[in-house]
Amino acid sequence: EVQLVESGGGLVQPGGSLRLSCAASGFTFDDYNMSWVRQAPGKGLEWVSAISGKGGSTYYSDSVKGRFTISRDNAKNTVYLQMSSLKPEDTAVYYCNARRVFGGGAVTQEVWGQGTLVTVSS
Description:
Blueprint: E1 3-7, E2 10-12, E3 18-25, E4 33-39, E5 45-51, E6 58-60, E7 68-73, E8 78-83, E9 92-102, E10 107-112, E11 116-120
Parallel strand pairs: 2-11
Antiparallel strand pairs: 1-3, 3-8, 4-5, 4-9, 5-6, 7-8, 9-10, 9-11
């Protein structure tokens, strides 16, 4: 079964840190670029960060650059999001996404996790 399972969410005070994990199964993990996407209460989806299949390239939204770090361990089929200096506006459900484009761009395969809630509050 193709699956992504996030973990590591919870309640943290402003300025604190959390590390999210996303464990993949059922597909060839390093064939896929991985992303973290979040959805704040009452708002739409916001892309947060991405990492290439082999881990050589990473990308961040301006809102988290310098505070969040994405990484992956292909031996463990897991992607991580280390979040530091957390702010109340980081409160959201964080989703893990796996995406592969092939066939000259004609075919896209995508997998989503169920999400993990991060609440930043004092």
